[in-house]
Every structure is written in C-alpha cells, then in structure tokens.
C-alpha cells in the first residue's frame, strides 16, 4: 500500500546571528542536514530565506514530514515556528528537490517583489498557498536556468 503524500507549509523567524560568514555557515549546515534527512525520509521541498524569516514547503509521507517539522521546531536557529498548511496532495510539486534553497539572489528578490512589497515579506501575513506558489514558481525558474 502506498502512503498518502502530504504538503506542509510553515514559516519561522531566524534566530541565527553573526557576521555574513557565520550566517552563511549556519544556512549551509541547515541545508546539508536537511538534504540528508529529507532524502532518507522521502521528503522533497524548498526553503526560502529573506528579511530574517524562513519559509518552507515540505512534501512526503505524513509521519515523515511531521517528524521533520518537529525537528525544525526544536532547532534553536528557528523561532516563532508557525504552521500555515498541512494538506494531502496527489503529486509532488518539488520532485527533484530534496531541499531546494531559493530566493537569495538579487534576481530572485525581484521575482517575488510583489509578494514582498505587499507583506514586507512578513510570512505571518501570507497564506500557506501564497508561500507554496512563491516557492514553486522560484524552483521552476531555477530549474529552467540550470
């Protein structure tokens, strides 16, 4: 029997401080561990960081994404972790991304400027669907550019 896939969307506030090099090392660590864990746990998704906040979409078997979300909530680098959506899905939107990281370049910033300007990229003012659509559009463009 095949497990039903689910999509989880959340945002959190960055609790990592330090100079750019220190911050970059923390992000690299988050991504490296997430990619290993997500591959093992059959989770796909994408992560966006901007203006002191993380927004993420996780897709996979429900017990696996719930366990990943629990790890995120326990991680001191994330604060004010807020679940925006948890829904069953028929197919993955991020099948090639164990953990895509998008939205950090100046080109990406322009791509989601309309959402950023309407919310100040305050994820608490965005719905799970808006964050999902934003990340999906960014990964489609990243894949096209690759």
From TrEMBL:
PROSITE patterns noted in UniProt: BLUF
Top-rank taxon: Bacteria
Domain BLUF: 5-100
Gene3D superfamilies: 3.30.70.100
Protein's UniProt name: BLUF domain-containing protein
Organism: Fulvimarina uroteuthidis
